## 1
Amino acid sequence: MSAPSNPDTDVPLSLPAGTFGKGLFSIQNSHRFALAAGVTAVLLLFCIWPYQHWYFTGGRSSVMEGWFKTVRDSHNGEWWFCFAVPVLVGFLVHLRRAEWRMLPLDGHWTGAPLIGVGLLFYWIGYKADTGYAGFIAAQIVIAGLILMIGGFRWMKVLFFPWLFLAFMWPMFPIEERIVGKLRVLTASLSAGLLNTIGLDVIREGTALSSASDLSKNLAQGQLFQLDVEEPCSGVRSLYSLVMVSALYGYLSLKRTGPRLILFLSAIPLAMLGNVVRMVLLAIGSVWFGTEFAVGRNINGEQEMSTYHTLAGYVVFAVALIGMFALCSLMEGSHWKAFKNISKPAGAKRTAGVGLSMESPIRNYKMTAIALGLALLGLGVCAATNVSVAVAEPGVQMSLPLQLGKFQGLPFDMTAIERNILDPGVELCRNQYISGDQQMLMATLIEGGPAKRSLHRPEVCLPGQGWNITDRTTIPIQLASGRTIEATMLRMFRDGEPTPGQRIRQRAINVYWYIGSDGTTSADYYDHIRIGYIDAVFKNLNHRWAMASFYIPLAPSPIGMGDPMAEVNALEEIRTFAGQIAPEFMKSEAKLAP
């Protein structure tokens, strides 16, 4: 059969069912087999196979079951929008139905290495017992299946729906990696705008406080004190707004350039929305009082006011208005494109492109190989030793009551800490006081049997009223001569012991993580990375611990602290940590003189 001579004639790009062979070897049946095999591969890998221990007790569950639990249990539901992504992907595929219905199956071998790479991530996640690798594997394997079974033309038609599928996976590591930078940037922009409009503000890290005004007898922070916490930093809205911008641009814009510009604009628009929110909170505090604008603190828990809640919607309002205005600027009446969303465009054959002569036998072969690769990946996982054998902790949970000039006193875990910490986590803490009344607190936290049962101090400190102004990596020389890296946090919190007298308490916190073999890490995500690598290549499942040291500085009126006090405190804590490490780190106890 030859191609029609008129290249502009509308023709189906696949041949009628039964053109080649009959019964089992018809094109129609080979298509059914391809669909069934592709769906089977995805179901086996991501919906049926027990993949990871998502909770502390019980057996493994599938990638999709873990995905559902992770999204459902996300803090304050900030990732619930992930539930809508599969539905939106189905809608996007449905929009292109007039095109993919007329495409022949023309599977390409480039899908095989993609499936292989996806299965490698799948095995790594299975071996290291982490779901994030399973999410990555799902994204890559699906792309490989489309190419292996359908070919490049199928991938071209389904590329955006496949790319959009990435918004389905909650990426907590990405969220927490950028949250600190977004908080600082939001606070800086908010302070600049408030100062510009005549409302004097002092920024310290992510904290904003009203400036002192001697003419009105107002101390610093008396009118308002705001902290750009994680919900206000833009990160909680950023990921969903990026998703909305990608979908909005795809449906309403015609050209790739404007779509890309709109996609990238979601980041500054989310930041702008959060800056406007902070400005509204500051102005509301000045005009109507902090309790009306921000809320009340009841037994250590911040209760948001109605005004505060409504101000939160400004983030989305500013971002969505900005997206609409930007699209209108780039492509005029872009909204008219929505009228044709439900009307599938016909598929025209492009000049110079001939009909693909499908071979049912080749369809069967490519599909069977794709399914075979998926089954091979499951076979490798089944043969992999994944018995849970958590190593012994690298610390002994005891601290000396006497160290140099410091005298220690045990300090038990509080009820709040017991509720925050995961099951199986142990804590040992001493409060030390020197002869010159210098106070220092040392804490050991030993993780439970489950991975990632420890968290960053940056997570819980803001809930205790601390504002973290700086995060730095510092060296600490241990008594054995070994030098390790630790994270140092500078922080403060304000109080009003007597009416009209505002006092600032500054402090320094230093911490690091300790693995079962004495490995140390200053960074939370680095210790997770080390744990996964050692689980895969050394068959070593660390039971991590964290050493934390806290030293407060003498309270002082706001803006009148001694800058040298912080330098001296840091040197004190480094010396103390280096001397006490051999007392609890098993690897150092063997090396200490």
## 2
Amino acid sequence: MAEIPRKSLSEIVASQIAAQILDETYKSGYQLPAERDLIKQFGVSRSTLREALKTLEEINLIESRHGVGRFISELNENNLAQANQMASNGETLREASRVKITSEDSPQGPHRLPVTPEKPLIIPNLKTDRLGTFSFISWWEREKVENAKVMVVGAGALGNEVIKNLALMGIGSLFIVDFDTIELANLSRSVLFRESDSGRKKAEVAAARAKELNPNVHVQYFHGDITTTLGLGIFRRMDVIIGCLDNREARLAVNRFAYWINKPWVDGAIQEFFGLARVFVPGEGACFECTLTEQARRDLSIRYSCPLLARENILLGKVPTTPTIASIIAGIESQEALKLIHNKPVEPGKVIHFNGMTNEVHTTAYTPVEDCESHWSYGDITELPLRTNTTTIKDLLNIAHRDLGPDAVIELDQELILSLNCPQCGNREEILEPISAVGFKRAHCPTCGLLRETVMTHTLNGDEDFLSRTLASVGVPDLHILRAYNTEEYRFYELTGDLDNSLHFNHFERPADETPIKLTGRIKIKDVINLKERPKITIHKPVIKISGTKKDIEDSKKAVKITISSDKKDIEES
């Protein structure tokens, strides 16, 4: 009778780390090695390792310090006893990979099985299965790919290539975001766009073409600014986010959103013959904000006398590029996303540089910044059955005050412009709109033309005189997650009532009652022509200009008649 080990790999890894802590391989207060080193040491996947580390955290044997790493806790009566029990019940990965067989079953003794069982070979029907060849890839897990939800931010040259790759690979659901429209200059480097698409929304056209490439892929597009108009609840439901952006402000926004809700994201950048790709995973290595130079930080934090002008000057122009470098970097981005979906090892916090002029490729590791503002993640998120366009500020404040007390305030993600005040003529205009909706021209006084002072806030405490306004009216996007806090803690509230309308992946889906026309067999002329009739087909020449004699011109006006004989043999031969 075969005796199969019942302990999972994560339990085995946890027991071995516990044993190393007890024998002081890892001493109290010391930092554990990085995840990638532990993955290599134990030969397990990232998900298995994280499950093991979570088990050790639950018994207080290790502690996680956000943005820094994991450290060995001080041993005490409670965690010491649990560590001893875990270590004594442990077994090695080598032992776990054996099937123990009694001498009665096999005189040769125990037989070894690989730690990761070999993928069963399935021979697909390549005539009917468009993704069949992927089944021959040893690590490919079709179910994971088809269930994956991937957001692509930016549908320009880089985004076109990424979307094309993901559609061809059969990624189950694609959410495509862009705020721009198509112009003819895009056609030289955007495989999904056509000349007839000029003036249309990039996100919409890219989503439609992805659906054409692979009808089995579910798509949804969003035409808007990623920095202000997309709810965090959408980010929260993605498996991977891929950035195909051309400015720092958008990258910084995606980076912070991804870290807030603990999602990995892949970034790419291209210019002429040069490109780079990098993976950022919260809690592992540097993030995008860590990579910014002091000059880049100053550019992003710059504030003129009017903050509206600063916002309008952040985007400094288009970046020239070629379709070839877009293909190269998009290929790397798509492959890194595929590895994340399969829980394959990646190198977060490192950048791959590609120099197309010399064909040189090299990798550089970024240095994490300990006090980086992006290294902050939301805690438990409370899902509220409320909608952004019907829930008022007072409604949400009542919930926050119930949970956190009367001193709780709601913190907005962007400034709310309260009013514009002219210091010269005293003109005052009530605004109550998010800064993203107020332009620089509007900041000028309509009476004297002077630039007005901007009065704004990013917190709401209940003393405001506009508490009856809905959250949508002050710039809160659908399915967003808002923060509320007091002096001791934060609470996070998602407006989950918006879910059905905000995240559906059913753009360009064929209606359920629409059945495509199927033609069976061959249709012959004799099946559609009544042989008893003598059909006549008259072909008229098109109107053309003819030079020559009058007689020639008159002859050209005559109609030409062709009569098809009803002889069966003649028709079949035709």
## 3
Amino acid sequence: MIKSFITSFKLKNAYRVNSIIYSIKQLPIINRILPNELYKSKILKIIGNIISILIEIIGIFIGKFLYIWLMIISMLVIYKTNMSDTFLHIFTFLTLCGGLLNTYMFNPTKDKYYAMFTMNMDAKKYTLSNYYYSLLKVIIGFLPFTIIFGKMAQVPLWMCIILPVFVVMVKMAVSGYSLYDFEKNKIAKNENLPTKILWIVLALLLAISYGLPYLGFTINKTIFVIFFAISVVFGVLSFNKINKFKDYKKIYKQILTKENMYAAQNQTITKAIKDNVEKQIQFDSKLTSNKKGFAYFHDIFVKRHKKILTEAVKKQSAVIFVIMILVIIVAYFNKDFANQTNKVLLTYLPYFVFIMYLLNRGTTVTQAMFMNCDHSMLTYRIYRTPKVILGLFKERLKTLIKVNLLPAIIIAIGLPLLLFITGGTDNILNYIVLFISIIAMSIFFSVHYLVMYYLLQPYNVNTEMKSSTYKVVQAVTYFVCYYMIQIKLPTISFGIAMSAFCILYSLISLVIAYKYAPKTFKLRI
């Protein structure tokens, strides 16, 4: 088993090194300097191996640190419940979510395909050696942070130490059950394609994780110990099942199908997205438009994709409207809640940057544009001419802004109204700034995502995301928006600054897009 693990680790590392070299070659300017013979360079491969090992080591810890800090510690401040019980409560139910969503065993990856079907490695030895290595990384990665953050939350040391074991036992219990289910139903679980029932269960667990503490209910230390004991019992039973199971190759033959021949995680996700998008397209030959040229072409696209573009936003807006009405009603009858809300509206406007980021549908819309339009049209030379690209860009920008403005307008009107009902403000500019800043944020994200799509077009002909730069920009956008949650500034000063930034950024981005999009908007290799 050790020999199988060493071989598989070398295989995985070789693939990672080539991916690192590929990502470097995709970076702007650098891709023109570096030759295609780069993959043959021994020096670069040595550097790539060093980077790969560092990524492996850092990956063991950084993900666990961010997980506990972002998902648990940063949330504790909003609850009035006992801190240690709240920490254990959120950790417990998020662990159940993680166990159901990611066991490490049923995740289709390229290295599994290459090892078991190209190199014909023993499926059981390969699976078990890599599975236990993944569980070992969980314990090593979690332990320092469950101790540090657990002690910060006043959780007893011995509980902090067993928390990583709890995570491992839950994952083993789910894996054992999945193997039992395969023997019974002959259907292999694919972690990248969760069922509707699983999504419902995950939503309930998340609601319990974050909702119950807000209502004043959490599990205590005794209940956590019971959860832990149950996980150990099922984990140990599953350990026996995992080791005795013989048909791992049959499982991976199902997971690594022809449609997912390369077994890449991003391909599986892309296929799921593509299938979901195709289900929502309205194929109606009677659909027409009175517009001409690029506007006609785009208008037909919008009408066929109205479920993705408009109907989903209408539902989102209806939910926001109901929430806004409920908050206004509660604030009207509850003075304490009204006073707290008033303070939030005058100092927590940065928080709404993250909310507007989450509400924005730029990623969904650009994915639909590529998968059901640009994916095929970019193979035609005429579609890549500056006139066509810029003509469609203008039409798409109008649509995306309109789509995102619907929920934004509800929030932009609701916040000043809520401010007035909760006690108002001496400076009338607060009302105006609240409205304008929300609208500016909405337009900013619309411009940002469309410009990013046109300048960094990340997909290849197989709808795989191939742009490392695009991924970096996505990650930076997320972390900047999330960081805004931590900022407290007067609404007037932040709102004016944010609105000015959004306008300036949008203008500069549009100029850059108009200049460079005809050169950058093309299929990736």
## 4
Amino acid sequence: MATSASAYINRELSWLEFNQRVLEEAEDPTQPLLERLKFLTIVSSNLDEFFEIRVAALKQLLENRSDAHGPDGLRPGETLAAIRQRVQRMVSDQYHLLHKTLLPALAEKNIFLRTVSGLDETRVAWSRETFRKDILPILTPLAVDPSHPFPQLLNKSVNLAVLYSKPGIQESTRHAFVQVPRGIPRILALPSAQPDRKEFILLSELVRHFVGEVFPGMKIHGAWPTRITRNSELYIDEEEAQNLLLTIEEELQKRNRGAAVRLEIPEDCPVEIENYLLGRLHLRPEDVYRVIGPVNLTQLFALTEAGRNDISLRDPAFTPAQPASLPGGPADFEAIRQKDILLHHPYESFTPIVTLLENAAEDPDVLAIKMTLYRTSGDSPVINALILAARNEKQVTVLVELKARFDEANNIAWARKMEEAGIHVVYGLVGLKTHCKTLLIVRREEGHLRSYLHLGTGNYHPRTARLYTDLGLLTSRSSLTTEAAALFNVLTGMSETAHFDELLVAPFNFAPRLIEMINRERAHLRAGRKAGIFIKVNSLVDQQMIDTLYAASQEGVPVDMVIRGICCLQPGVPGLSENIRVRSIVDRFLEHSRIYVFQNDGEPLIYLGSADLMPRNLHRRVEVVFPILDQELRRNILDGIVPSYLADNTKARILGPAGQYTRAPRTEGSPRHRVQEEFLRHYTATPLEMPRAAVNPVGRPAAGAREA
């Protein structure tokens, strides 16, 4: 087993390398222009959450004088220093890309981002009038003086730090803050005399330019946009909480007031203002990030809608395929009875799942619906169908995960709405997040009960089902529906334990069964039988899993992994992991499906599910990983889906031993493979063969195909 700290990649630095791959998509000149801008804003949004959660946790450890370190051996202070260095470079690259490439390219397409100083007199007058009529009444200046304490600047809000004075003989400067309002669009369209010319201005730019009107009679010495990121983790003792819903609501009120962890200011902000803010926010100079341009690049996402009529500026539109195996209406139950059905999102529509729920809500033979909800959309047809079912006197039970990060408020609102409609709403097990994606429908058929089950890798969220790659299984197999019913009994508190043979359920049997299957591949190889492992997950962090995979590699078991985000395992190290390959794919859709395949001497074991390989997924969440038992579906995964991921040589990056990622190699003249593009063609265009690659069903590419 690996014990040296040098055998592991630091979790936080690995995540930053994932964000770098997102930035590379913004830098890629082959991408449509507005898609490049979209990826640029995603980098900033990702960094926000990284600071709110991960950096905040490290700073707390440092403040508590903790000497704790992860498997990689880095202590909190060392990790924070490495993060600072890496993020500085990333942010510099972001702004350089924005100013030197993206904004000039947008200008060539007649899309402009303006400043007030760059406008003609007519549009300066329009800007002043717009400010006075639509913005000024909302603004509230917050002075800082002996009678006015330093204000509570909200998390991720943009605030102007204003230096002003009252004209007089003994003039002294004072500080004040003006929050850029959140309730109106962050980017405003400017009037243009040319219809084909689209011009915009940032709301923060208008407020900054006309801020003197907020301080009548005062002399303004300067105003600088600032942005503070705060600790946004919720701290809840579930065992002490009398009412979990109310406790989380109270904690949400504190999220905007957590300890500051990052300060973003413009490059021209005076050192005096910086030092003043650092002192009041209890931050250090290393917590400051100076930028050339807007202090919040996420607001530029609104520009991606500017050229919606120019198809050359964005990815081609597509319509998800409607699965032929699901005819719709009551016939869907018959179709699921006949055979298991696998749905592949976003290439295939998520609508059949919503339709199945809606039909169940109206079907007089449906007696009960049980479901887990981790995240869902704002105007959720899923929630509406569940409410309709309850009104139609079905027994409806929904487990709502109140602790789904950054969706807590939405889920509280949904929980209350469902309870009011007569749905039994439960919040799961103390100390565990319920992250599994499970829907069980119980129906009376010919005098007996039959259950129908949907298990998935993604949330019941119609919007993200068009943006994330996920897989879902519809089945009526009693071996699976019986265990799903037992799981719901555990979640609702009606059973303390349950035995699972087919399902792998965290935190009960998933980790030990997974280790058992990895070790079984080692035994197969030692006995001269076929062995190989394929794993596709979002993150690989858990040390025990990494060590188990290292042990398999050391015995010669070929291991191929597709890991989108964090990977703490070092592949390709002689004597340690030389038989392990890791690739990451960042493309138009967020890779979100989890797939586990074990060669098992030619009788592959195939599992899909909600779980990544992180300590939280293995030990602190309820996850469901389910087997694929239907032979046709197994062939689809083994001969189509898995090889296509391993063949991608366009969007795939290969992880090297030192933690660096490089583009997957493609030899001159070899065919181009882009897995998401090929799936789009397969599902949404003229039917064609599922893309095949010259690879074994599990494990290494066939001889001569490694570079393809």
